[in-house]
Write a structure and sequence with these properties.
The termini are far apart. With 457 residues, this protein is α/β, with parallel strands linked by helices. The protein is globular, with a radius of gyration of 22 Å. The strands form three sheets. The chain has a seven-stranded parallel sheet, with helices on both faces. Strands 3-4 form a two-stranded antiparallel ribbon. Strands 8-9 form a two-stranded antiparallel ribbon. It has 17 helices and eleven strands. 40% of the residues lie in helices and 12% in strands. The relative contact order is 0.13.
């Protein structure tokens, strides 16, 4: 009787979670469509001003000496050009004169996204690597960038990166690839191509939410038979198989290199993907295995913190302790999409019959969270080896900043406070992004910084 009752509760929770996620996805999609229709109507009524175009050309010339700031989105995210005029970073890219917002695979693995990010910047056809592509069962080559968004990128022209959620780990993997000279035809790369990395709720050490959503805690690779991620898997496979071009141009999960279109694999190929014989979910070459504690430790064991790069992170949490019990910190401050998970993650207990992911593991270390990631995971790389770090209370106390150290702050907020909806964050939004951009321009540099109004002086 008790087992039946528990199973019923789990099914109810799965239904509620799936409905909340579907409704939020529909809300985002419909908001983007409504914004595009409104913009098109406005452009039809009020013709674009030629003077604005001329001002933009002059502005482009005045920022040539500035290193770009590249904003890298997280899981289910999107870059400039997707979802119409909607901004993943809620318009933060307008706060500086030279900001790039790449569109990477929203569910592809950290490895694949790091490769895509390199070619987005340098130009050329995305090369996922022969060995990796064969092992994961997808095409070696992907999207073509006829002209890179920053083709001059090198050690003398480095870049500032700002990554949200999994985007922060993508940038770290990319920097390690640069150190390893892992890009064919680009043998002169080095980690010094990266001037600074700033993480917003970065997924450095995995998350217990991955297990709540359906990853098996035994291996951190396979899925439970019935879970939220199984529903997501089926939906993504069908989305890619139907291959409706106008829809995919609007939003793409990033699995084009797996060739799952109905035009290429037919009905039997669809069956193979659904039953787990082929595709990204069969090979494990997608984002969720990288977000388990085990997957993050596998990545971290190969990634360094480099001595000439500046590192900053903002770790978010929406929990507090009352009489030794960790609970969500208020109903109104947590997005409906995340409230159930904040509660569940704050009570997380690793299965007693499964070996802990690392020596010294304690459940209570992972209870503080923001609804998607555990706060312990977001401060700096900790497992399997802890990287140099410093807790920041006041920026001025840490200046001048030193490279090779993770400076981190703990911020009250849920996982999506600083993206998509600017109004939710209120004044905090401006405080966070203004401090990030100011730090990139004034406090994180190897040479004397060039400010926008100094270029022509």
């Amino acid at each position: 009787m008790m087992r039946w009752w528990i199973s019923s509760l789990q099914l109810v929770e799965l239904f509620v979670s799936s409905m909340v996620h579907m409704l939020y996805g529909f809300y985002i999609f419909s908001t983007a469509v409504a914004g595009d229709l409104s913009q098109a109507f406005s452009d039809w009524i009020f013709k674009p001003n030629l003077a604005d175009g001329l001002k933009r050309v002059d502005s482009d010339k005045s920022i040539e000496g500035l290193p770009p700031i590249v904003l890298v989105h997280g899981i289910f995210g999107f870059g400039k050009g997707r979802l119409g005029g909607l901004s993943y970073f809620a318009g933060a890219e307008k706060k500086d004169e030279r900001v790039l917002v790449p569109d990477l695979g929203s569910l592809t693995s950290v490895y694949d996204r790091a490769r895509e990010l390199f070619y987005y910047l340098k130009g050329g056809q995305v090369d996922y690597g022969e060995e990796h592509s064969k092992a994961c069962g997808h095409s070696q080559f992907g999207r073509v960038y006829d002209k890179g968004h920053y083709p001059e990128w090198d050690e003398d022209h480095p870049i500032h990166f700002v990554g949200h959620s999994a985007g922060a780990q993508v940038v770290r993997v990319l920097q390690q690839m640069l150190a390893d000279r892992a890009f064919k035809g680009h043998e002169n790369t080095s980690p010094n191509w990266v001037l600074s990395i700033t993480s917003l709720s970065g997924a450095f050490n995995g998350t217990t939410r991955a297990y709540l959503d359906g990853m098996q805690p035994e291996d951190g690779m396979s899925l439970k038979p019935l879970c939220l991620l199984q529903l997501c898997r089926v939906g993504v496979i069908l989305y890619d198989w139907f291959d409706v071009q106008w829809l995919k141009s609007y939003y793409n999960f990033g699995f084009d290199h797996f060739n799952m279109s109905r035009k290429k694999i037919g009905i039997w190929g669809l069956v193979n993907c659904l039953v787990g014989r082929s595709g990204p979910f069969a090979s494990g070459d997608w984002i969720l295995p990288d977000l388990t504690i085990q997957g993050s430790m596998r990545l971290n064991s190969r990634i360094q913190t480099f001595p000439d790069t500046y590192y900053f992170s903002y770790a978010t949490k929406r929990t507090r302790k009352i009489m030794g019990v960790t609970i969500p910190s208020g109903l109104l401050g947590i997005h409906p999409l995340l409230f159930i998970r904040v509660l569940q993650m704050s009570q997380w207990s690793h299965p007693p019959d499964v070996s802990p992911p690392y020596k010294g593991y304690r459940d209570e270390d992972w209870w503080d969270n923001d609804g998607a990631l555990n706060t312990i995971s977001m401060t700096h790389p900790r497992f399997p080896t802890e990287h140099p770090s410093h807790l920041v209370v006041n920026d001025s106390e840490c200046q001048p900043f030193q490279p090779g150290i993770w400076y981190y702050k703990i911020v009250d907020g849920d996982h999506i406070l600083f993206i998509v909806n600017r109004e939710r964050a209120g004044v905090q939004f401006d405080l966070i992004y203004d401090s990030i951009f100011e730090r990139c321009r004034k406090h994180a540099f190897r040479k004397t910084p060039t400010m926008p109004n100094q270029v022509h002086q």
